[in-house]
Design a protein that fits this description.
Elements lengths: L3 E4 L3 H13 L3 E6 L7 H5 L2 E4 L12 H11 L3 E3 L9 H9 L3 E2 L4 H8 L1 H10 L15 H11 L3 E9 L2 E6 L5 H16 L4 E5 L5 E9 L5 E13 L2 E7 L6 H17 L4 E10 L2 E8 L6 H8 L3 H9 L16 E8 L1 E2 L5 E2 L2 E2 L2 E3 L6 E5 L6 E2 L6 E9 L2 H14 L1 E3 L5 H8 L2 H4 L5 H9 L23 E10 L2 E10 L13 E2 L19 E3 L4 E6 L6 E2 L4 E7 L2 E6 L4 E6 L6 E2 L4 E5 L1
Parallel strand pairs: 1-2, 1-4, 2-3, 4-5
Antiparallel strand pairs: 6-7, 6-8, 9-10, 9-12, 10-11, 11-14, 12-13, 14-21, 15-16, 17-20, 18-22, 19-21, 23-24, 23-25, 26-33, 27-29, 27-32, 28-31, 29-30, 31-33
Helix pairs in contact: 4-5, 12-13
Length: about 600
């Protein structure tokens, strides 16, 4: 077994992995960006190493830096969590070449499932049902038009290297195909550095059901039941549960058997997830996630297994700790993603500092979080604050327990999805086992005030803001080796007038959530609803616009957000351009 494991991730998943490592007696090594210097996961690790300043490309995606830290810290293995480098075959190969174990599947399995077109062909050959469509990339709109006419509308245009809803567009009619095709290509290039897209039949409002698998290096592959992830907005999951309320025992067995065939077809090893679209008693392969999933928690709650522990054991050459006959899920579990987003304003991200924080507790309640009072939700990363999980003997009691836990949860300073989840879990459609597709589609399209609810949770104590820090540069000599050292000292502890002046004051990061209107105000000013980066501008001075016309697209927290005209008129000025950073409430354009 390993003595030390480097966790190449951040936030709640880093802490979740470190907890298992601690239980196994394995030293945990964290890596962090400058923006995460004060983050909870950094404090939680047994040791932590800076990756320096800059965006994720310079830090959490910087393979040479991460491997350098692994070697310096004595880590024998790397756990990638999810996101960042978790499904990066070159990273897995680089670990192998450096003599470091990658806690995940073999690089060839990642490659096989990383291309959605190649994966579809592979699954078809393995006897796993696939949605009607093509298994090769589509070159241009002209070719796409011919394929769409053959398959039939509606058509889904999807990134071949994609996942998580990125690079996904739907053309309901031939008139929609060009914009869907170009939008999917653009987003695919941005997120995956690969603009290849393919086409398949779009299934309106199918259920999104996935199967958890485990495979070791000793010839054992087993499945651990299903998760229903159908409650989504913009193809991003919001609530997950197990078992699915719409999956029959026969369908469950067929999906489990197909998932084992799929994993064996690519020589899989570690924990993985097969995702399917389900319509009635039919299911179709969607993709395979070659990593631990965000929603792995609900499977753990009903099976009693620690999936991260299984990953570590398998990577160390051991067998899975359970047989297929011993898999016996019990009860029902839900997971609600507590994101820093405003559901009333089209789920716009709300980065900023958390001023007060208190987690729920009690029987059957689990919280996987990476924050505390004083933490900052950065606009550099995804907006997840925490994951709230509940378990009980059946679906209805688990739902009621989740509502109780949501009412207890306190996160002040940023707008979160807690009020949304309380609203959602009280919807009759959800209570009946539905996925609330229509309501969520409407909420994603326009501002939708949630109804006020009676009562409020007890007030949480206000959390102190992070202390202002000052940086001092020093030279230290340890064991005859010279080190340049930076110390970050609370300003109040600096001796007045004593010693050299600080090298520089650290700038405070983040900012409060934005509470203005979605795209404009009472005047003709079109305002940015959030802090972010302008991806494209759709208008120019002198152009006529109607209410709802797209003015520009802003990226924030890894999501594209359309800013639309709040009034009809003529564009008299455009004050931004593609690539420009904008602040919340900054004027983007003026409608005369």
């Amino acid at each position: 077994m390993f003595d030390a494991v480097l966790v190449a991730n951040r936030g709640e998943i880093a802490i979740r992995v470190m907890r298992t490592l601690r239980e196994m007696g394995i030293r945990s090594v964290a890596v962090y960006s400058e923006a995460d210097r004060d983050a909870l996961f950094v404090q939680f690790a047994d040791e932590a190493h800076s990756l320096g300043p800059g965006p994720a490309t310079d830090t959490y995606l910087n393979i040479p830096k991460i491997l350098e830290v692994a070697a310096a810290s004595g880590a024998q293995a790397v756990h990638p969590g999810y996101g960042f480098l978790a499904e990066n075959a070159p990273f897995a190969r680089a670990c192998e070449e450096a003599g470091i174990t990658f806690i995940g599947p073999p690089p060839d399995a990642i490659d096989a499932m990383g291309s959605k077109t190649a994966a579809r062909a592979l699954m078809d050959a393995a006897g796993v049902p696939i949605v009607p469509g093509v298994t090769e990339g589509v070159a241009d709109v002209a070719e796409a038009t011919g394929i769409a006419e053959e398959i039939g509308y509606p058509i889904a245009v999807k990134a071949a290297a994609g996942g998580g809803g990125k690079g996904f567009r739907v053309a309901l009619t031939p008139d929609d195909l060009e914009s869907a095709f170009e939008g999917a290509r653009r987003e695919s290039e941005k997120f995956f550095a690969d603009s290849t897209v393919y086409l398949e039949r779009y299934l309106p409002q199918p259920r999104h059901v996935e199967i958890q698998v485990l495979a070791d290096g000793h010839g054992t592959t087993l499945w651990l039941g299903e998760r229903d992830c159908s409650v989504q907005r913009r193809h991003q999951k919001l609530v997950e549960e197990t078992p699915s309320p719409i999956v029959s025992d026969d369908l469950r067995q067929r999906m489990g058997a197909a998932s084992v065939r799929a994993a064996e077809a690519v020589g899989y090893r570690s924990a993985g997830t097969l995702e399917y679209l389900v319509s009635g008693e039919e299911f179709f392969f969607l993709e395979m996630n070659t990593r631990i999933q965000v929603e792995h928690t609900v499977t753990e709650m009903v099976t009693g297994l620690d999936l991260v522990r299984e990953q570590v054991r398998i990577a160390a050459g051991e067998a899975v700790s359970i047989t297929q006959d011993e898999v016996a899920p019990r009860g029902h579990a839900f997971e609600c993603r507590i994101n820093a987003e405003d559901a009333e304003r089209r789920f716009l991200p709300t980065p900023g500092p958390i001023t007060a924080y208190r987690e729920p507790a009690g029987p059957g309640v689990r919280v996987d979080s990476g924050v505390q009072g004083g933490s900052v939700i950065s606009d550099m990363y995804d907006p997840m604050v925490a994951k709230l999980i509940t378990w009980d003997v059946d679906r209805e009691t688990a739902r009621l327990r989740m509502l109780r836990a949501l009412e207890e949860y306190v996160v002040d300073g940023v707008t979160t999805l807690i009020p949304f989840h309380i609203w959602l879990l009280n919807q009759q459609d959800f209570i009946d086992g539905g996925a609330c597709h229509d309501a969520l589609e409407a909420m994603s399209a326009e501002d939708t005030p949630l109804p006020a609810r009676d009562g409020s949770p007890p007030a949480a104590p206000e959390a102190p803001e992070a202390e202002p820090m000052a940086e001092r540069a020093l030279v230290a000599e340890v064991g005859g080796r010279r080190f340049d050292v930076r110390l970050f000292i609370p300003e109040k502890d600096l001796a007045a007038g004593g010693g050299p002046a600080p090298a520089k004051k650290r700038e405070r990061r983040g900012g409060g959530g934005h509470h203005g209107s979605g795209g404009g105000n009472a005047t003709g000013d079109v305002l940015s609803p959030m802090q972010g980066t302008v991806l494209s501008v759709a208008v120019e001075a002198g152009q006529e616009v109607a209410v709802g016309d797209v003015i520009c697209i802003i990226e924030a927290m890894k999501m594209e957000n359309e800013v639309t005209a709040h009034t009809a008129g003529t564009i008299s000025a455009v004050s931004v351009e593609a690539g420009q950073s904008v602040a919340a409430d900054e004027v983007i354009a003026v409608i005369g």
